[in-house]
Amino acid sequence: MIGRENIQTQLIRILTCILVVFVFNQPVSSAEQRLYFNQLSTKNGLSHNRVHAILQDSKGFIWVGTSDGLNRYDGINFKTFYKKDLNINSSFVVTLCEDNIGNIWIGTDNGVSVYDSKNDLFRHFNQVSSSGLMIHNKVPIIRKDEQGVIWMAVNNQGLFSYDPESKVLNNYFVENGVQRLPANITSFYFDNNNVCWLGLYTL
After folding, report:
1. Which backbone phi and psi does 27 adopt, to 5 degrees?
2. Complete DSSP assignment for 35-52
3. By C-alpha distance, which of 87, 90, 88, 125 is closest to 105?
């Protein structure tokens, strides 16, 4: 004889199965199926069609780094900044990162520029590191960690970290001005244990 609890359990299982089948067999609405793509190029005001980095900042602006200029897009128009505006001897923008106070860090093929969002101006980041080096080579990656420290991989100059609070710039994998890594850093990542994983460009 089947107990009442067993019957209730079986009914719950059957109803759950029916509900799951019903939900997953619902047709996707036509609104969800439609995806719209707009192409933005030099025809719309972009400074160059070769794009290396895209960032949406905390104010909603889209920043686009290209082979010739940094572009800020407000959803309608582009405003372009070249090397004179960036206060650095390069318009070739490789990577972008926003820090905790809304400043935009701009990695170029010739060092780093920082957009001061409060004062609406760019400054060349020319601070000297703990090893006595300034960043002057190509900067392929800039990232921010959980503490708000800015990390920058620089070709032939190793890895840099900048603490905005202490304003200290540290340099890693460099000895007597020479990079000790077997190759340049192409990517890096901090895992949940705060261990840094590096990807290197090797042939």
Report:
1. -70, 140
2. -------GGGT-S-S-EE
3. 125
φ, ψ of residue 114 to 5 degrees: the values are -125, 130
| pLDDT digits 0-9 by tens, 13-71 | 665 655 555 555 656 555 567 888 889 999 999 999 999 999 999 999 999 999 999 99
- Prediction pTM value: 0.81
Length of the chain: 203
Is the residue at 41 inside a domain? no
- Tokens 């794009």: give the residue: 51
Residue whose token pair is 């070769």: 50
User: Is 112 among the domain residues?
Assistant: yes
Structure tokens at 148: 């708000």
Which residues are CB-neighbours of 131 under 8 A, at least 6 positions away? 171, 174, 177
User: How far is residue 21's CA from residue 62's CA, in Å, rounded to a whole number?
Assistant: 41
Residue 153's pLDDT is: 97
Amino acid (1-letter code) at residue 12 = I
CA distances (Å), 168 to each of 4, 27, 87, 118, 132, in order?
71, 56, 22, 21, 12
**Domain assignment of residue 133, given as a range:** 50-200
Q: Is residue 8 part of a domain?
A: no
